[in-house]
């Protein structure tokens, strides 16, 4: 049976039924609310094609996918291999605990796995993929080249592939712009990324922690527009016009540290609102925090070593916030500023 995909403008999502549902597959299509002035220029919301073939619908991932400007699809909820699973010495022997935790993530229904050279745990990520027993094509694997080290891009990429034990990644990102002394360095690095993309070994290329001036520099010479910018994004760090800039240029946004207001930045002005909405939807405040990101058409990356929490997070595909609730969280969130990562790179009052 052919799969009917919907091409729609993506912004806030309203759930609609999939047009055709092949057997043994659960597809979920999200359509946007129209008339949203901040709607991204890129198109489509898609059913997510991940899940164990032949398993029952209840065991399937119900995570929606987002179509990127290069035509590829990214699952909108990803499992982070950074932060808690960061390995300080990348040359240390394989850390079985990390492998176990990532396998737990996979078995809980997460197939979009976010890795990076600097997390030091690409071998553990690769091992977890192997131990899951699932075929490569079930996964959406991201890795990133260090954003602080000056190095040969192709060599770094090939080393990442080797450590992962893969012959391609779904997404390769420049982790941060901080290695660059000026726009020319960013432009040269992006040209390297384009060459990797052309080789077919990275299906999608993008950036992370780039601000407007960094993106403007890249766009001046880019042949391939970055598909995505992975940024710290939560109600206490909404960045000033950055997401709108992405939308205007067809660049998707991916949010890390989405639980900041619930976990790290408490107490805060949103505590009561999260509690109120969690009660209304029968979920946890963390799940409200994730949904706030998704309801803006933004990919969300979280992580946990707690199985119950991981399974709970999957509930985000079963409800959605109203546009008024999204707006309420955004408005209240602006009362507080909090940056959890890369603080040494920004002035204390810089929320760009
Ligand atoms: N590109 C970049 O520069 C960059 C930077 C940072 C992160 N990232 C990526 O984004 C991923 C997610 O980032 P993040 O870890 O900051 O995401 P997050 O989803 O905001 O936080 C996840 C952390 O919160 C904890 N947590 C969740 N619910 C909790 C609760 N109710 N009480 C206490 N603790 C709770 C989890 O611990 P438990 O294990 O106890 O659940 C986990 O350590 C990373 O793993 C990485 O892949 C990228």
UniProtKB/TrEMBL annotation:
| Pfam families linked | Aldo_ket_red
- The answer to keyword Metal-binding applying to this record is no
Q: Which UniProt keywords apply?
A: NADP, Oxidoreductase
Enumerate the GO terms in the molecular function aspect. Answer: oxidoreductase activity, acting on NAD(P)H as acceptor; oxidoreductase activity, acting on the CH-OH group of donors, NAD or NADP as acceptor
What domain of life is recorded for the organism?
A: Eukaryota
Domain NADP-dependent oxidoreductase: residue ranges: 80-332
Instruction: Name the CDD domains for this protein.
Output: AKR_AKR3C2-3
Q: Which family does it belong to?
A: Belongs to the aldo/keto reductase family.
Q: Can you say what this protein is called?
A: NADPH-dependent conjugated polyketone reductase C1
Q: Which organism is it from?
A: Lachnellula suecica
Lineage of the organism:
Eukaryota, Fungi, Dikarya, Ascomycota, Pezizomycotina
Q: Which gene encodes it?
A: cpr-c1
